[in-house]
């Protein structure tokens, strides 16, 4: 395994970067203020018509974006910590593709009309259970195998994603055009069609996991040192990693079921967080990653809507930037 | 699978001239003939599969409708399948030789995605452009995308076998996201999925002939195959042997990009074909190049024929595009190849 692709040691490597000199407390405060400003602007800019109704709609969207920022940020950060790798994210390992496959299979077997009239909570529950079951199986299989090659694991994850996408498009081709149109809306992450009921359920689930993650923050610092060191320092490595993987699975399942796939979002946010913070302690990384996610989503959506007049294309743009960043990280890692 | 493949080349390097003469014996020729016969049988089966009844007795009885059907639809379709299958598999082989990596092919390094972007651009900008012009633009984009991949690759001094396809797939993903973005803006998403998924159902007489260009390119690839192996060893090595490294790489690039662009514009993307067939051929027959190219062609044609027949019968009388059958089958085979590497390394 190339040394450079593992998690960095908890000291700043490049002293020349002025951003690194910022204290984590300052970064956190700036981000918190920026998040509040973004939320305030998002709620108030260009507000007209029935103000109460519009505020309620916008509130739901802000809530959804906040939840997604927490879920994606936490899951990516935890995933990278336990795998000691800064390239792996749950979504690169094929999660978004599984989501598409499950959506497509549901529309295909039940028909879009049944799906639209079904209780959203039921549909949501089925999706979450399926995704957690899949991830538990896949990750157990990948991480307990004796391979040791990170790149192999990454490639296997990508190919599994391709396989799921292949199955999805096979089913899409076999379905009615009207069903396809409804399905098409589900392909892109959208913050416009979130059910208030789901928002509540998701908030509870994500909240519980966020609390657990916060309590585990010191264990994460130890886990980031690598498997052997962590065991030497008295962490029950196998148990903690299993727990974290299940937590990640639930978070990703909830966020994808809530708004759809956002592949590279986590990678983007966590990489920026590592660039900003001098101190790699998880007590700082956890809240900073979440706030960065919130600013990116809410601010990005605000700019897209108000400046460019787009609706739901934010995820495509994130995909593009995140993909470039991924290639850059790969190249940088290999060049050293 | 990779380590043995490489050591095999090393072992045969000094005796390759002898090996070529020794291995292409009469037994090999018979096997090749049998393989070609197998493709022919599949092709005949493919001709007689379909909704309209085109059967041998009908043809013999001089049924004009049946002959018409055969002439306008069935024969062109089968020819297109054989031509595309052969060409894409050989293009994959050439690419693997050029970058010396077993996990690389036009659809895992962004060539296909670039060609698709090219078609999208020309569809939006000049909707009335003739097919040939569309193909030209698509080829230019494919060339650019492949060159970009090679440029990125040359910046990777550490040529980890697995990192090369990861970079390629991600590059393809980035190009694909640009394509999706504009397709979404111009409401062309469903059209886009037609290009991204290989499908022979639209092939009629007059709509496949451009694939003969691809056949010619495949033959050029066969003639130049040895050079690509040499070029894969690096610029210095090639120059020491008195060859023009840049010229060989350019030739390879043009062949691979043109094949990808023509196939994408006429039938759509055929995923994993160029990856799987050369690997299977390598497992069965070793890495002797002159032997590998004809076998790659035969297996490529046969594989696509089988997938197309499956696609046409799995939900008779409706059709499933061959690209979907292939992406599912291909991904499974690719996973098997990868995990084989894993157990061998462990």
UniProtKB/TrEMBL annotation, chain A:
SUPFAM superfamilies associated with the record: ABC transporter involved in vitamin B12 uptake, BtuC
Protein localization: Cell membrane
Family matches, as InterPro entries: ABC_BtuC-like, ABC_transptr_permease_BtuC
Cited Gene3D superfamilies: ABC transporter involved in vitamin B12 uptake, BtuC (1.10.3470.10)
GO biological process terms, semicolon-separated: siderophore-iron import into cell
GO cellular component: plasma membrane
Transmembrane segments: 26-47, 59-78, 98-117, 124-142, 148-167, 197-216, 243-272, 284-304, 310-331
Gene Ontology molecular functions: transmembrane transporter activity
CDD domains, alphabetized: TM_ABC_iron-siderophores_like
Signal peptide: none
Top-rank taxon: Bacteria
Topological type in the membrane: Multi-pass membrane protein
Keywords: Cell membrane, Membrane, Transmembrane, Transmembrane helix, Transport
Record family assignment: Belongs to the binding-protein-dependent transport system permease family. FecCD subfamily.
Record protein name field: Iron complex transport system permease protein
Source organism per UniProt: Paeniglutamicibacter cryotolerans
TrEMBL record, chain B:
Record keywords: Cell membrane, Membrane, Transmembrane, Transmembrane helix, Transport
Any one biological process term the GO annotation gives: siderophore-iron import into cell
Sequence intervals crossing the membrane: 31-51, 79-99, 111-129, 135-153, 162-184, 210-230, 251-272, 292-311, 318-339
Presence of keyword tRNA processing: no
Pfam families, sorted: FecCD (PF01032)
Main location: membrane
InterPro entries according to UniProt: ABC_BtuC-like, ABC_transptr_permease_BtuC
GO CC, alphabetical: plasma membrane
Membrane topology of this protein: Multi-pass membrane protein
UniProt keyword annotation of Lipid metabolism present: no
GO MF, one example: transmembrane transporter activity
Family: Belongs to the binding-protein-dependent transport system permease family. FecCD subfamily.
Family annotation (PANTHER family): FERRIC ENTEROBACTIN TRANSPORT SYSTEM PERMEASE PROTEIN, PETROBACTIN IMPORT SYSTEM PERMEASE PROTEIN YCLN
Name this protein carries in UniProt: Iron complex transport system permease protein
Species the sequence originates in: Paeniglutamicibacter cryotolerans
Lineage of origin: Bacteria, Bacillati, Actinomycetota, Actinomycetes, Micrococcales
